[in-house]
UniProtKB/TrEMBL annotation:
Statement: the UniProt record of this protein carries the keyword Chloroplast: no
Protein localization: Bacterial flagellum basal body; Cell membrane
Assigned protein family: Belongs to the FliM family.
Organism this protein belongs to: Actinoplanes italicus
UniProt record, GO biological process: bacterial-type flagellum-dependent swarming motility; positive chemotaxis
GO MF terms held by the record: cytoskeletal motor activity
InterPro entries reported in the protein's UniProt record: CheC-like_sf (IPR028976), Flag_FliM (IPR001689), FliN-like_C (IPR001543), SpoA-like_sf (IPR036429)
Protein name: Flagellar motor switch protein FliM
Superkingdom of origin: Bacteria
Length: 316
């Protein structure tokens, strides 16, 4: 497959082809559907917050929307990036590994121009000056704050920007064959449009996803789930169940059972000092002593024999 030509500062949209995907034995572990859905909600939340941040910070209509979440090898990710581009090298304390936040240089120059009061538009392709670099660092740190907000339902992170690079080919953040999770975003700053990405180490994010296994629900979905749980609990609480209070069973020979007649006395092996068993479907869940309540037979629930003996012996 040949790589499509890219204009400077742009990144192609990967994964749009409808053909079969080759199986890579170097990365047999794949993100499950539940993991992808969880990450989708995290990054969609980040995209919305980041779009609002750019609009208010740059004073120009901006929008960030999630395009895709892919599992790639690090060398595949680097090969797909434009050169030059702006790459923020980030740590996510307390998680290990290095995260890359990549934004097209044209979009960065447009953002800086707006921060300095300019109109945006076409920008020169050049390294950032000493005046522009602190502005970019401040903007990226604000964006990382929105990333922390997106992940707060899964894990408490403290993103920190370590450095900013221009060429991913010279950035050895990971080994070439390491698996990474890449989230691609369509970023619009005024009239400027580009594809920005966030590259997470697979081994860093997988344990977090495994701990959260539960699907992240929206407010409406959570309300429906809570209502269903209340209805189910109420229905189970009102369901009639047959309960039996029984003596300890005995064993009899078949011919003795056949010869039983009205008036015969069958001796029970149940000790008088031992309470009866309270059962549901032959499952013992309590013990009781027989009695009556007015004209009706009844039983009084008492501690089980094991609990009584433990208290008497002083064992916990």
């Amino acid at each position: 497959m040949t790589t499509a030509q890219r204009s400077p500062g742009r990144m192609s949209r990967r994964g749009q082809g409808g053909g079969p995907t080759a199986y890579d034995f170097r990365r047999p572990i794949k993100l499950s559907r539940e993991h992808v859905r969880t990450l989708q909600m995290v990054f969609e939340s980040y995209a919305r917050s980041c779009g609002t941040l750019l609009t208010t910070r740059l004073r120009v209509v901006s929008n960030v929307s999630l395009i895709s979440i892919e599992q790639l090898n690090y060398d595949e990710y680097v090969a797909a990036l434009a050169n030059p581009t702006i790459i923020g090298v980030v740590t996510l304390d307390p998680l290990p590994g290095t995260v890359l936040l990549e934004i097209a240089q044209s979009a960065v120059m447009t953002a800086i121009d707006h921060m300095l009061g300019g109109p945006g538009g076409a920008q020169p392709e050049r390294p950032l000056t000493e005046v522009e670099m602190p502005l970019l660092r401040g903007l990226i740190e604000r964006m990382l704050g929105e990333l922390r907000y997106g992940f707060e339902s899964m894990v408490d992170l403290t993103p920190k920007l370590k450095e900013i690079e221009y060429n991913a080919q010279f950035l050895r953040a990971h080994a070439p064959g390491d698996a990474v999770v890449v989230a691609s975003f369509e970023t619009k700053i005024g009239a400027e449009e580009c594809i920005s990405t966030i590259c997470l180490p697979f081994n860093t994010i997988l344990p977090v996803l495994s701990r959260t296994e539960a699907i992240v629900l929206s407010a409406a979905e959570r309300q429906v789930k809570d209502t269903a749980l209340r209805n189910l609990t109420a229905g189970l609480s009102a369901a009639p169940i047959d309960v039996a209070v029984r003596f300890q069973p005995i064993r009899m020979r078949t011919d003795d059972i056949v010869d039983l007649r009205p008036g015969d006395v069958v001796p029970l092996g149940h000790m008088t000092s031992r309470p009866l068993e309270v059962t549901v479907n032959d499952i013992v869940f309590a013990h009781a002593v027989p009695g009556n309540q007015g004209a009706r037979l009844a039983c009084l629930v008492v501690p089980s024999p094991n609990e009584s003996s433990s208290k008497e012996s002083g064992r916990p």
